[in-house]
Amino acid sequence: MTGENLDGARGKIFKVDPGTMSFELLKETVFDPKTNEGKSRHTVYWKENTEFKKVVRHRNFKDIRGRQLAEFYNLNEKWVKEIKAGNMFKDRYVRILPATGRPHGLSKDESSIVGWFTPDKSDKSHKVGLLEFNGQKIQASLLGPNGAVDVYSPASAMDITTGFWEAKIRGEDVGGRFVVSAMEITPMPDPREADDPGLPRVLVVGDSISMNYHRAAKENLEGVANYHRIEGNGGSADRGALCIELWLGDYRQKGLHWDLIQFNHGLHDLKQVYDKETDTYSRHNVSLEDYKKYLEMEIQLMKKTGAKLMWCTTTPVPNRGPVWGDPPMGRRKDEDLVFNKAAMEVISRHPDILVNDINTFIRNSREFDKWREGNDVHFWGSPEQDLVGKAVADAIKKAIEDK
User: Fold this and answer.
1) Whole-prediction pTM value?
2) CB-based contacts of 403: which residues, under 8 Å, 6+ apart?
3) CA 149 to CA 95: how far, in whole Å?
4) Contact 292, 240 (CB under 8 A)
5) In angstroms, how far apart are the furthest CA atoms of the chain?
6) Are strands 260-263 and 308-312 parallel, antiparallel or unpaired?
7) Helix axes 288-303, 335-347, angle to 10 degrees
8) How far apart are the first and last CA of the chain?
9) What is the pLDDT of residues 5-48, one digit of tens each?
């Protein structure tokens, strides 16, 4: 495979070796277009003067104490205008910087501002404080429910020798080895801490539907399996092929293995470009042939874990759904049947892969009659989430018993 530029890459840290000053970075896979081969594990090296910074994310200023050097770095024209006028402004992203830095004010492009900031402890939302700028104290507020406050502090190579870490690296290739000049490291929880070591480990790979039934499935598997789900939305099959090794983690480590992996893609693949003038749909987000190709690639990577695999059929599209994006795309009623048929062409080549036919379960259940009247593929109500979650849990229980 051709050399990959890792400058700016983000991934998880594994197998730290202080002796060789190296570690493995596990990131999204990049495929070589000539060979169609991908690589997600990279050995990278640090040096004596590599700069390490620890980053811990908060959702508000609750745990931020006293006067801090802060950078608000997602400013728009409206809020810059308010700052210059000495009025209250809002921003979605804030960095709390080491106190050794300088409060140099607005950046040249006016997209960020750095100054001394003191959280307002009387504010019950913990999202408000005062920023010092041009001799004034301006009220600043964290915008929206998903705002982020990242606290930066000095770190060292010794920090990554224990625990679990995610990293963003900066550096260059030197003689065929990628050498890190600076890296931001973020602590991550040990997934084994919440596990019962006497129970099998189950991983669910899926889109927002699996997020809908996650709670119910996990509750139904309590005492039966350690139920884990990938971070975020698994999206389409091409994303699955790109990210599956990252989602699998370092399964060779003791206690990080997988006994069963349930996987699904489809609802993001089957979206189609919509022409409003002709009221017609054209190409899919991921073509049927590519869909099958990416599923096969993902299966081959998952088989390396030695886990039992279970395909979960794509849930129904009850009616044609909303159109959004550029180009505008939407879901067409029953297109799930087309993609499930294509998926089964792939799955049938692997008789060892189990099938959880959640699609048929939903289609045959009268409990989803009300849901079928709408055009949202998701299950937002607790009754529907409980039903789907229990069905998934039952399929997982049976797969564990059979194994």
Assistant:
1) 0.80
2) 200, 259, 260, 308
3) 6
4) no
5) 72
6) parallel
7) 40
8) 37
9) 899 999 999 999 999 999 999 998 876 656 666 778 899 999 99
